[in-house]
Design goal:
Layout: H1 22-49
Length: 50
């Protein structure tokens, strides 16, 4: 079995009404990391209970 995860940190140029910036990408990466951590912890806990 294989599990793959990814976090999208910015929209491609022209796909969003806000300009691209490194700061925004870092901010989105931090938000994504928090969500990914929760997802991964819950996933691993579910493996240990099944």
């Amino acid at each position: 079995k294989v599990v793959a995860l990814s976090v999208i940190t910015n929209m491609a140029s022209g796909m969003d009404n806000q300009p691209l910036s490194h700061e925004r990408t870092i901010e989105n990466a931090k938000k994504g990391m928090r969500d990914l951590k929760k997802l991964l912890v819950n996933f691993l806990e579910s493996l240990s209970t099944n």
